[in-house]
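Tokens as discussed.
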């Protein structure tokens, strides 16, 4: 039927029809973006089309904890944990639904990255046009998330925080404030400090908003009070099972006191988490990290000036920008107490969105800057993908499935697979990366040991006793644990290893496999 022959609709029907068409178009646009993002992440997480790359970094601890829960162990009682149990439970659910497979772990990273990009696009779309929101999302994907590809607890916490920001972006009604507080409680179920820092940022925003509306002091504290009440209620509900089974005192010690006493501070972190030794090969990555380190405080300072002090009509959507700015400042201040590049990256989403918001406000240089950023994102994405697929991968058939990894790791995994059956006790002293791929069981309360103050003498004593009681046959020891000085708490464990075990293999990585005599 031609356009001229189409039946005309009454004006009121046309008014309804056009928004519905716009909503469908926006939904299709968002779906297309997410499919493209998922495809990009899949290319980085799988090689040879279907072989998952064995991942590492902090997420390994949560894989191992979830595996121990599958074995029937309990967090805080049967194995050590100083973060909230949210990430452990999430990986436990993944293992229950999909099985203990390496590809399931990589799909979890893919789903997390896609979800983070979705919330980035949705939040950015509230304060800028869709084209700029798309650029902010792609910049976040390529510059921030794709570097670590690490499903650790920080990302899940920030996902909940940004969902809370989306809820409160346009309106501060009581139901929205209560929902925002509940989401911040969920954020604290993954990272206790992120949820608290974000709750403070939201509270400051709500108080400022009421004072700008010339409300009374009592009314100014009503919004933050409701937010914090909902936040505390959410935290208590989510932790109710663990409070009942573990005890509030133990949770308080491991999640609060232990972190306060043993977590490294700024003064004890070399180069603020940047690479200690710079080489020409590592220089691009170090430059990228330094860029993010310097970018965030500058962006928050400029955004605060632009959104807080300009007249109401001069900066569109300044309310949402101010909300993101305050939340970002509090998150950055929280991780600055104990910084490393992963923590800085994980809380950077508000800053990445505000960078594009500031570019969008720069009328004179807006188009060339946006074009330059699109070119930069494309080049960085191509470089990262090329670098990942030109690494020297070796395909290993492991108990948790086929995986691609570097030759040194594959050598260790295959050699141990031939001698240790899945489900057997095995202690990897320096890093818990082998338990899930090989289906092995950590026999100790602690997940790993290190030559620093985080491994307390009492932990070493318990480790020696459990190695003895459970007659653990193999221990994989790392050379970096052989630091000999008066403050090294691992000396008794190393002495026990030399007395009760014999060296049977030194791998090319200099890791040592010891067998009980």
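Sequence:
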């Amino acid at each position: 039927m031609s356009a001229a022959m189409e039946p005309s609709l009454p004006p009121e029907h046309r008014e309804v029809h056009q928004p519905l068409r716009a909503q469908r178009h926006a939904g299709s646009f968002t779906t297309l973006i997410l499919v493209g993002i998922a495809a990009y992440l899949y290319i980085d997480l799988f090689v040879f089309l279907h072989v998952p790359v064995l991942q590492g970094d902090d997420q390994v601890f949560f894989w191992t904890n979830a595996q121990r829960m599958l074995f029937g162990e309990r967090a805080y009682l049967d194995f050590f944990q100083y973060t909230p149990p949210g990430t452990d439970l999430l990986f436990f659910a993944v293992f229950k639904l999909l099985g203990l497979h390496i590809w399931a772990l990589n799909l979890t990273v893919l789903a997390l990255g896609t979800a983070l990009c979705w919330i980035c696009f949705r939040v950015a779309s509230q304060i800028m046009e869709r084209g700029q929101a798309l650029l902010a999302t792609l910049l976040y994907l390529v510059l921030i998330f794709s570097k670590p590809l690490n499903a650790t607890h920080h990302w899940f916490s920030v996902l909940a925080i940004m969902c809370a920001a989306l809820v409160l972006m346009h309106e501060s009604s009581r139901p929205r404030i209560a929902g925002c507080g509940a989401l911040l409680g969920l954020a604290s179920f993954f990272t206790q400090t992120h949820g608290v820092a974000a709750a403070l940022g939201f509270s400051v925003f709500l108080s400022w908003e009421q004072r700008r509306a010339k409300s009374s002091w009592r009314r100014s504290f009503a919004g933050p009070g409701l937010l914090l009440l909902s936040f505390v209620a959410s935290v208590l509900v989510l932790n109710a099972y663990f409070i009942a089974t573990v005890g509030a005192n133990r949770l308080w010690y491991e999640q609060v006191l232990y972190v306060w006493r043993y977590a490294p501070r700024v003064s004890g972190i070399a180069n603020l988490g940047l690479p200690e030794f710079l080489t020409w090969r590592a220089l691009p990555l170090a430059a990228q990290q330094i860029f993010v380190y310097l970018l965030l405080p500058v962006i928050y300072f400029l955004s605060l000036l632009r959104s807080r002090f300009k007249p109401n009509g001069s900066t569109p959507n300044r309310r949402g920008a101010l909300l993101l700015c305050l939340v970002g400042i509090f998150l950055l201040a929280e991780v600055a107490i104990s910084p490393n590049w992963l923590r800085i990256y994980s809380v950077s989403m508000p800053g990445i969105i505000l960078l594009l918001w500031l570019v969008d406000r720069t009328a004179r240089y807006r188009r060339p800057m946006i074009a330059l950023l699109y070119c930069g994102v494309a080049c960085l994405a191509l470089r990262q993908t090329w670098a990942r697929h030109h690494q020297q991968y070796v395909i290993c058939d492991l108990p948790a499935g086929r995986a691609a990894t570097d030759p040194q790791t594959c050598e260790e995994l295959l050699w141990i697979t031939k001698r240790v059956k899945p489900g057997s006790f095995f202690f990897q002293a320096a890093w818990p990366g082998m338990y899930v791929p090989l289906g092995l069981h950590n026999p100790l309360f602690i997940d790993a040991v290190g030559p620093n103050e985080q491994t307390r003498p009492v932990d070493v004593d318990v480790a020696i006793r459990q190695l003895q009681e459970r007659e653990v046959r193999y221990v994989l020891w790392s050379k970096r644990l052989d630091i000999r000085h008066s403050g090294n708490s691992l000396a008794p464990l190393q002495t026990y290893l030399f007395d009760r075990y014999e060296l049977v293999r030194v791998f090319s990585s200099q890791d040592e496999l010891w067998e009980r005599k």
